[in-house]
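Pasting as-is:
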Amino acid sequence: MKKLSIITLIFLLSGCSSSGKKSIDKLYFRFPEATKNSIDKKIEIKRPQAMGIIGNRPMVVQTKEGGLMQMQHHFWLDSPKVLLQNYLEDTLGKEDETNYVLSSTILNLEKDNNSAVVAIKFLLADKSGNTILNKTYKQQAQINGESISDFAHTAQRLINEIVAQLVDEIQ
């Protein structure tokens, strides 16, 4: 009986010990560096909205069945809502006295198989609430590579393209 308890104790302790597996590091990614544009409108940039889980820090991938899933080890440096607001402020300028208000909603910011998909809806209104622009920009591009870093770089390029289109339309 004593031998059986010792063997049982050894099995229990070996089951609780470290298996020696290396822990997976968490990786964080930024939005692209903004390029300052000179536009004649002074725009207040409201905090963007985001559809569901897209506004959270974990990166989002689309499953084969079309569902969205948050990644466990790959994150945006901050919420995409904050990152987009900072990016827009750096691009369009942050003004004290404004004549216009820019609202935005992130509709897609995800990896779909070997593609990156980014869609953002923008609403530009004057201070009286009259709509100047109400448009959704959607870009999709093949990812050059297989890593999440490659996805982040492709998403960054798409964000640059979308904001460049927005700037062209509001000038």
